[in-house]
Amino acid sequence: MALFSVVFAMTVLSPTRTSSSLVPGPLNTNLQTVHQFPDFTWMENMAVRKNGQILGTDLSAGKFYLVDPQNPNLEPPVLAQFPDGSCVLGIAEVQEDVFYTQTIFGDGYTFNFQPNTSAFWEVDMRKYSEKSLATVRKITDLPAVGLPNGMTLLSKDEGTVLIADSTRGLIWRVNVHTGTSEVVFDDPLLKPISGAEPSFGVNGVRIVDSLLYFTSYNQALIASLPISHEGRPTGPATVISSDVPTADDFAVDGHGNIWLTENVQNTLVRVSPNGQVQTIAGGPNSTDLIGPVSAAFGRGYDDRDTLYISTDGLTFSASGKILTSNGKIAAIDTKHLCED
Ligand SMILES: *[C@@H]1O[C@H](CO)[C@@H](O)[C@H](O)[C@H]1NC(C)=O
Ligand SMILES: *[C@@H]1O[C@H](CO)[C@@H](O)[C@H](O)[C@H]1NC(C)=O
């Protein structure tokens, strides 16, 4: 997730994401809209079900939507509504069709979060086809987590996930069965830069084999490190690129390329394992991807090379007023790109 205050939008960003400076980018026939949500929908993060449907978290309204790329005209049903005033952030699947997510009370658009109000939830989709309802329950409060942002599966057997704490600059492990949590990684690379607006460190986290990848938002970097089954470092972190401003959430493909959203840059980039950064879609002045926040690959035979991208849809006027807030889920065929 990335949020920025009015002050940041007006004075720090260059270019600012103001609507007057945005125009459609170069025609990219490969980028398609899966679903365009209405105003005040912030598509913060996604998990793809085994059947190809997407669970999308709406940060601003504390909701989960179910988006079906096979039925793009279907109005996405609301799967879960978290308590009034909740912002909902990262998501991870632990057992098939059992997802976990995290909330904090506050207002994302004004970047105002209530300290010590983070919570961890289960969203069980196993009976969804019968009841058209997900079963939602709170597993635990996480009062010591500053701002719970990205989430990734650590161990299916043990029922553990890792979560990125953007304001305290920490990575936590949470056991989804017991609700216990502890810090497993604390490093300067995870820390926010004090005085930056917003002051965010680690943002997205993904584990591939025994490598933990993470972005650090203020430090404009993507890095990886080897970890144990318990999620603890077994070697030093390697910075893959430190040229990814406002680095948000991301997906890693089978070749170790990182498909990364640069939130305030309105850009999706591909970072190769040797650190080359290539723009794939959008751009600082483009309306193609306004505020991209997360990326996830499809899981079906037909769409495993399709990258889904979610956006917050945010633009501001020069005086900092919200002009657009209609997030979306977009798709891009990466197979086509890799063959270029
Ligand atoms: C409440 O939040 C603050 C700031 O993140 C943190 O330092 C403190 O430890 C938290 N308190 C509890 C009881 O967890
Ligand atoms: C974006 O627009 C600004 C203002 O018009 C311009 O200075 C800048 O070069 C543009 N950036 C890109 C990447 O096109």
TrEMBL record:
Claim: Coiled coil is one of the keywords in the record: no
Gene3D superfamilies: TolB, C-terminal domain
Stretch forming the signal peptide: 1-18
Highest taxon, organism lineage: Eukaryota
Keywords, sorted A to Z: Signal
Name under which the protein is recorded: SMP-30/Gluconolactonase/LRE-like region domain-containing protein
Organism per entry: Viridothelium virens (Speckled blister lichen)
